[in-house]
Amino acid sequence: MIAVLKSTATEQQIENIIEWIRSVGLDVHISRGHYQTVLGLIGDTRKIDEDLLSGLDIVETVTRISEPFKQASRKFHPEDSVIEVADTSVGGDVFAFMAGPCSVESEEQIISIARDVKALGATMLRGGAFKPRTSPYDFQGLKAEGLELLLLAKKETGLPIVSEIMNANHLPMFEDVDVIQVGARNMQNFELLKELGRTKKTILLKRGLANTIKELLMSAEYIMAGGNENIILCERGIRTFETYTRNTLDISAVSVIRELSHLPVIVDPSHATGVAKYVKSMALAAAAAGAHGVMIEVHNDPARALCDGPQALTPAQFGDVAKGVHAVLDAIRE
Ligand code: PEP
Ligand code: MN
Fold first, then answer.
1. Protein residues with C-beta less than 5 angstroms from the ion ligand 2
2. 132 Cβ closer than 6 Å to some ligand 1 atom
3. Verdict on whether the full-model pTM lies above 0.90
4. Residue 28 C-alpha to ligand 1 middle, in angstroms?
């Protein structure tokens, strides 16, 4: 349930109403916009007399949120959420460029890529240390060592780092990781989501291979229900009958998510297409559709990459994509 307060409401009146709502055992999420304050009531809202609430002097409207996701809903938080990550942010007018290899392979590899992508416009460095591979015989990642190497690259370049977690028991290893990624395969690992909800870490939540937008938002809700609001959503393509691309990029998900939710949404054109030559056009499409950023796989030697080489761009190709994205952003912001 949300209560939109009148712009004339005083601080004291706002405090009183919040105290009253809390006194019946509900939590209150306060969203202060430029013009209005919106109170989101969390918990069993049957405990609140809706007529009494809407009859209060300072209350403009009371609405029940009909969607199953509440805290992730834009009704709950009308303005775009901007998620702070180290000294940068994701959401609102800031466009994020997360770039880096599918997996961290060696110190030379990650440092070289980090330096190159930073010089070419990346705002964050991505790199998998724990890899969810389809085959148990494929490279599984450098694990703890991979995270150490990412931290080294962060120290060298200042870029915040993004890396995937697969097991909640690994959380202590992610203490200095700026953004914890939940990959497509774990989007509905509810126990993992609940654990991440108990932290204050920024979570990059990727859409599952065969999940609806509503299911993605419900997974975000799991994290938010635990008290963690620092979530970035990611459209990375869904599985369809098409075989020329690895997945099918659902670009309309960007528009739908932006309407339904206040959370920032980025696009991963690398996993969406699986083909390096299609990454640029899909990144440009993402920017044109209103995405808050892109995540792109970049490798210094794609032909020898231990994971996802066919979709990896060289640093120079990434630079070209970043230039194109900026041109699109300039065009649509005019
Ligand atoms: C990744 O980003 O490295 C990854 C495995 O992506 P996804 O979970 O989207 O397949
Ligand atoms: Mn990959």
1. 102, 308
2. yes
3. yes
4. 35
Supply the residue whose CA is at minimum distance from atom 6 of ligand 1. 183
Please name which of 333, 330, 298 lies closest in space to residue 314, comparing C-alpha atoms: 298
Provide the residue ranges of all domains of the chain, joining segments of one domain with +.
Answer: 2-63, 83-333
Cβ of 271 below 6 Å from ligand 1: yes
Distance CA 175, CA 147 (A): 10
The torsion angle over the Cα atoms of residues 191, 193, 195 and 200, rounded to 10 degrees, is 180
**In ligand 1, which atom is closest to the CA atom of 237?**
9
CATH code at 83-333: 3.20.20.70
Superfamily of the domain at 2-63: Phospho-2-dehydro-3-deoxyheptonate aldolase; domain 1 (3.30.70.1140)
Ligand 1 near 208 CB (within 6 A): no
What is the reported pLDDT for 34?
Answer: 80
Q: Given this model, what pLDDT does residue 36 score?
A: 85
Look at ligand 1, atom 10, and give the residue with the nearest C-alpha. 184
Q: What percent of the chain has pLDDT over 90?
A: 95
Render pLDDT for 47-95 as a digit per residue (tens, 0 to 9).
999 999 999 999 999 999 889 999 999 999 999 999 999 999 999 999 9
Closest ligand 1 atom to residue 236 Cα is 9
Give DSSP secondary structure letters for 165-200. ---GGGGGGGTT-SEEEE-GGGTT-HHHHHHHHTS-
